[in-house]
Design goal:
alpha+beta, 7-stranded antiparallel sheet, 7 strands, elongated
Length: about 130
């Protein structure tokens, strides 16, 4: 029974501490908040790279390419077969070169050595 009054007093004291005016903490908070802002602006992507990312997300090629050009897989990605979309996709690994056939469903349509066409995300490709 003694714990309820003790708990109530601790609660009131804690709430009272929250409402008391801060001493020098705002100055420390201001300098701490200024540092992340400076780092965020330095870490912002270059306009050219953000334009390429926007183009790729819109389904447009992020670089100049036309049908028949050779492109390179820049990062590992799944490639979905065009002829049988229900088929299990296969993995395309970085360094593989493929022939660009066009664009479909916001992705690049490419063909490997086997000639099988598949769809791969634009962000996984780079100019050949």
């Amino acid at each position: 029974m003694v714990t309820r009054p003790l708990f109530a007093m601790a609660l009131v004291a804690g709430l009272g501490a929250c409402s008391s005016p801060p001493t020098e903490e705002p100055a420390a908070e201001a300098s701490a908040s200024a540092e992340p802002a400076a780092t965020e602006s330095a870490a912002a992507p270059a306009p050219a790279s953000s334009d390429a990312a926007t183009a790729a997300s819109n389904g447009e090629p992020p670089f100049a390419v036309k049908a028949g050009d050779t492109v390179k897989v820049a990062k590992q990605a799944e490639c979905f077969e065009v002829a049988d979309p229900a088929a299990t996709p296969w993995t395309m690994f970085p360094g593989v070169t493929v022939t660009y056939k066009g664009a479909q469903d916001g992705k690049a349509k490419v063909a490997g050595i086997s000639g099988t066409e598949c769809l791969i995300p634009w962000e996984a490709l780079a100019p050949g």
